[in-house]
Amino acid sequence: MAMRWFGRRGPQEGMGAPEGAAEVKVAPVAALVEAKASAAGKVMAAQGVGRALWGARDTGALTRGGFVGNPVGFRALKLVAEAAAAVPLVCQDAERRYDTHPVLDLMRRPNPGQGRAELFEALFGQILLSGNGFLEAVDVGASGLPGELHVLRSDRMSVVPGADGWPVAYEYAVGGRKHRFDMTGSPDPICHIRSFHPTDDHYGLSPMQAAAVAVDVHNSASAWSRALLDNAARPSGAIIYKGADGQGVLSPDQYDRLVTEMEQHHQGARNAGRPMLLEGGLDWKPMGFSPSDMEFHETKLAAAREIAMAFGVPPMLIGIPGDATYANYAEAHRAFYRLTVLPLATRVAAGVAWWLSEHLGAEIDLKPDLDQIPALAEERDQHWARVGAASFLTEAEKRAALGLPPVAGG
User: What Pfam families does the record point to (predicted)?
Assistant: First the structure.
């Protein structure tokens, strides 16, 4: 049976395992040749070989304006990150699903300060804020697996491309100090997970960047509302006086009496709804928002919906009024998991599993356990019932349709 270990660019056949890594026998597979097939790699690298390339973005400003200082962006990101981090994961290979495994033990407590949910919430948060997530492997042991995993801030990390366009290092900079992670050996010390970016070869595109204009509009509308309250808040109405001689000026005694009457009989919760008796040429004119003010308010709600849409969160889950895309809350919740949470959790789990397979020396797979997600319980019951009732399928085909590995020896 062939021995293979996992390098940065795929399974390596006919080579020894990395120093200090335990050899694990796996099922023989077709040999994959390590080669760069893309002729555009050298053109990409021409941007700057050996030096750090910073993406055309300001993650700090987007984070302060769109997450720290915007309630819609904060809630949308927290909903996605917390839901994706809470998705249970299963560990399996081509032959079996594991209840106990060194990778599961590592995921359970990746470092002394974080559990699995905290680590993945931080990782998902970095991906949603900047489009990039970075995991660092610390204290690699004799088994090949890291002793600890840490999420690194993406605004401090920069890619150092090599002559072939692939990263040869990552630089982590804090203040005036830098640390370089070498990516030329195996296994890799850094796992870089990035979102799709159509115009950047090394960095991902975040939902926060796509929603930047909507965030600015929403923040400006909030600032305008605050200024209205502080500097130009409108009273509920005005009392207009027209004297018999056509003059609109009250005498001092009349003015003092009017103020006293208003304070004693028409102010406070005890006097709410009490009718007002006006005499001597006094008239009441109510005041409200002008049409332009109401249009500004609708613009703010539209911006909030755009922010939620960029993150893939149904607006009704955040409490934004005026959105009736889904028939009810439960349907919106299922769509949120199907269209946003599960694709993100599946992609990140697969990337982390391949990276840890390189350390372990044997291929393992991490993927969400759909049967343990309450929001999808009804759909999963229907799916199991359909597969179980399919008499034309064998037991092995039914297990494959449900995403289960084959029975050992069967």
Answer: Phage_portal (PF04860)
